[in-house]
Amino acid sequence: MSRNASAAADDPTADEILRFAGVSMRYGRGPEVLNDVSLSLPRGSFHFVTGPSGAGKSSLLKLIYLAARPSSGSVRLFGEDVTAMPAREMPRIRRRIGVVFQDLLLLDHLSAFDNTALPLRIAGHKAAEYRNDVAELLTWVGLGQRMEALPPTLAGGEKQRLAIARAVVNRPEILLADEPTGNVDHEMALRIYRLFVELNRLGTTVIIATHDQDLVARSGRPVLHLERGRLRPMPPMGPAE
Amino acid sequence: MSAAFDPQRWKPASFLPEAEARDPALIFVVAVLCFLACLTGLMVIAGDRAAHGWQNQLTGEATVIVRARGGETPDAAAARAAEALAAVPGVTEARALEKEKAYELIRPWLGDVADLEDLPVPRLVAVGLDDRKPATAAVLDKALKAQGIDAVVDDHSVWIEDIRCAAGVVRWTAASILALIAGAAGAVVAFATRAGIAARRDVVEVLHLAGAEDAQIANLFELRFARVAAVAGAIGAVAAGALGAMLRLIGGGEGITPALPIAWADLLAVLPCPVLAALVAAVAARITARRLIQRL
């Protein structure tokens, strides 16, 4: 066994993809939206983040995709302390994370195909390497006939699926989704959930913030429940099956 | 149609919208600045040519004022001076001017004097100098003194120095104007970049969150404004070139005026304008975008 492998075997955090240690967060001088949150997620796990509106679900995700910094505590991602990471190093981390934003953040002047291909282009991949994959993914999410459509011409559910396609197109190590089934019907919600499960099966760590209690209950996945910025006692966590 | 979409023929679209509502205004302002810059450039070239022409005329000749001594007649003194000067190396020609020529020169100062013959008017000797190795005023003076001729040599050095000085002032003034115009263009582009980033904050945010580096995003704005400025630069250059051509045509062989002659070849000077405008815009957009994006 190599020295590194041996060290990894001895290190209980070696299989950990995300760790929050006493993390609090506030916007500007406002009140704390997260308060002393500590958690550890193993690589390949699948978690729901639940809680009432304003509980801090979106803020928790923002800390993970480096759109915000904690006011205290520390955040470790992929084994690196990202708490005070310089901005110039963030792109390297962000490229390993896929995000379905609550407000989708689609670029209205780009076609569905261009929106989906965006993370791959940013990462510097050549079009020839990915255009078939992008087309396949869009077909999979039910947008095979709308690849050239601009987001303003898409229905709410179609936009949601497009945002999901963009988030997963580069096979991220962590997939974050903020209310990904908010604008879709039950059948599409299940289909999206199955997509997340499939990605998780392939090794992606999935964290979904949702109000959809039905989906959470039926999935049987572990839940991080937030109330007023604090984590409620969590059920035992472990890698997804 | 969507159904006919072929991924193999897909061409990646620009991350920034191809055109913005404020583009025409920006193009107009930058085009006007480029027009003024090109016009300034053309005027400097024409002014420089005129100054060189005057300088060449003056450096190619000298004037010697000869005063008769003793019983010698002015004409004889002038002829002797011309002979002495013709033998000096660096002199191509020395010619004593007729007395009428000297009278013509002093008449504006004295008015209509009935009989100039009564006045001790000095005679003039026009000296042609070798272009490549002209004789200096000191050498001419020495040659005249050696022959005992009372004369003053004017090699036009005062005028030449004045012309040189004036040409230098014109050049530096033009350079300052061009620098000011470049600065103004840069400021306009910086302002437009700032507005562009504010208007496209959503795009910047998405690109950032998708893992784009600051430099990648700044590049988008840099390229965009460089392209807009290149178009504006081309418009300004064409307009200035057209005006230059018109002045050349109207002014005949010597341009708008004999003092400021524009040659057809001078119009080529406007050609680099689009490239220079794009460069100025790219630098301004890059600096502004980088600074702003870092703060987002």
Could you list some keywords that capture this structure?
heterodimer, A: 241 residues, alpha/beta, six-stranded mixed sheet, four-stranded antiparallel sheet, 10 strands, 34% helix, disordered N terminus, B: 296 residues, alpha+beta, 2 domains, 62% helix
Summarize the structure.
With 241 residues, chain A is of the alpha/beta class. Helix content of chain A is 34%, strand content 23%. Chain B is of the alpha+beta class.
Structural notes for this entry:
- The complex is a heterodimer of chains A (241) and B (296).
- Chain A has helices at residues 3-10, 57-64, 90-94, 112-122, 127-140, 156-168, 186-201, 213-219, and strands spanning 16-26, 32-42, 46-50, 72-77, 80-81, 97-100, 174-178, 205-209, 223-227, 230-231.
- By secondary structure, chain A is of the alpha/beta class.
- The longest helix of chain A has 16 residues, at 186-201.
- In chain A, helix 4 crosses helix 5 (127-140) and helix 4 (112-122) runs parallel beside helix 6.
- Chain B is an alpha+beta fold and 296 residues long.
- Chain B folds into two domains: 7-55 and 161-295, no CATH class; 61-133, no CATH class.
- In chain B, 62% of the residues lie in helices and 8% in strands.
- Chain B is built from eight helices and four strands.
- Chain B has helices at residues 23-59, 74-86, 99-110, 137-146, 157-199, 201-209, 214-250, 273-295, and strands spanning 61-67, 91-96, 123-129, 150-154.
- In chain B, helix 5 crosses helix 8 (273-295) and helix 7 packs antiparallel against helix 8.
- The longest helix of chain B is centred in the middle third of the chain and has 43 residues, at 157-199.
- The radius of gyration of chain B is 32 Å and the shape is rod-shaped.
- Chain B starts with 22 loop residues before the first helix and ends with a helix.
- The model of chain B has no long low-confidence stretch (mean pLDDT 84).
- Chain A binds chain B through residues 65, 67, 87-88, 91-92, 94-95, 99, 101, 105-107, 109-111, 113-114, 117-119, 121-123, 127, 131-132, 134-135, 145-149, 166, and chain B through 1-3, 5, 7-8, 10, 12-13, 15, 17-18, 202-203, 205-214, 216, 294.
